[in-house]
Amino acid sequence: MTAEAGPPLPPLRCRPDWPFFAGLAVLSGVYVLFIVAMLAADLSFTSPRHLLRALASPEIRYAIKLSLISCSLTTLLSLWIAVPTGYLLSRHRFPGKRLMDAILDIPIVLPPLVIGLSLLILFQTPPGRALQQLVPVTYAIPSVILAQFAVACAFAVRTMLVTFDQISPRCEQVALTLGCNRSQAFWRVALPEARRGLLTAATLAWARALGEFGPILVFSGATRMRTEVLPTTVFLELSVGNIEAAVAVSLIMIAAALIVLTLARLFGLRAPLERVL
Amino acid sequence: MIALEHVTIQAGDFLLRNIDLTVPAGSYAVLMGRTGAGKTTLLEAVCGLKRVVRGTIRLNGGEVSRLRPGERGIGYVPQDRALFQTMTVRAHLAFALVIRKAPREEVARRVTELAGLLGIEHLLDRHPHGLSGGEAQRVALGRALSARPNILCLDEPLSALDENTKTEIGALLRKVQQAAGLTVLQVTHNQAEAENLADHIFQLHNGRVERQT
Fold first, then answer.
1. Whether A135 contacts chain B with CB within 8 A
2. Least CB-packed of B4, B104, B147, B167 within 10 Å?
């Protein structure tokens, strides 16, 4: 008996697609509305006067400045580590690779307070104390950057690993046959191909660093005009019952995050293709 | 000349043992075999991209088994062409010369020469995105030829092309090979393609290379 034997099946009447698309729209729409509602609630709780007063406060201006500087430094440090680490894990097999891969995820899964506590203990060990003889870290500005870096870098590493995984190694192999060594193939071929992932990793690291609070509270303290970043300000203002100021600072953070995310996306989409040669 | 003497190649869990193959200098050879037979692995070993566990690979008389890919004097066109998405066609043709720090005038001269030979002058300022299959193949070929290699390794260069473009690129490959006196080793599983192009046809079957013509 052949596969063609027997009468043909009647034409199938397909169900309409609109319930499927309606499901997608409703579920995603609910989440977007949830986020917008939170922002709208914040906006309704404050006024331009509160915002201007917050911006005029020397403590909050210091926190804005420290946040912008520390987040940018954290982003640079994170990329400096994330690019080679992501490339190594993506392109090479070596003993202990799985273990290394798992260790790199620890800062993502650990509670933020635990990261802060671990950093605090690390800098109380003999090597940590020796380092602090040279550069004061704990409860000083370097501790803010280090606390942000501990978490943000893990996200940047993961992003770069996925980015390099998605780029075929074939291009680098061709570059090798054309006379490149491994380093040249990386700088001239792999890294330019990874430019969008690089931008995503930078954006993610910056945004994570901006929102970091737990590790900073434990490792850096919450000292005004010293280790105060914007999340610390929100905490300090809330702790003295100044909710209007806390909301105003929250809105400043939201605005900063929106500006950076929008610029990064616009830049990422419109960036001219790099001329490597 | 390409000569493999008792070569064993390892690529992960895949192993090709004791391969012997000789392609005379200046000839066009095609290596055939079923999918998964190891044709691409063998070609990549010639290019230095796969590890040779035992045996010797000689290119133009010199042993290259331990040389890095860029030191072997070969041009390589992979099956997916692997064009550099961030570079223009001009940058592709210039790539190997820029790596060798060739003077600007020499780079420009070679780019013009290759673009003329391959008929891609009008594409020089374009990026790979949006090129047709035939155009992309010409660019990949130009990139492989830019440093004037003696040996050209082609992995299924006609596989993803329509019939007209296949004939066109096939004729171009032959023209380029004869013009530059290249030794070509091409991998394919298409018998008609092999018969059209090749001076010598080899079969890779059950881990052994047999000469068919």
1. no
2. B104
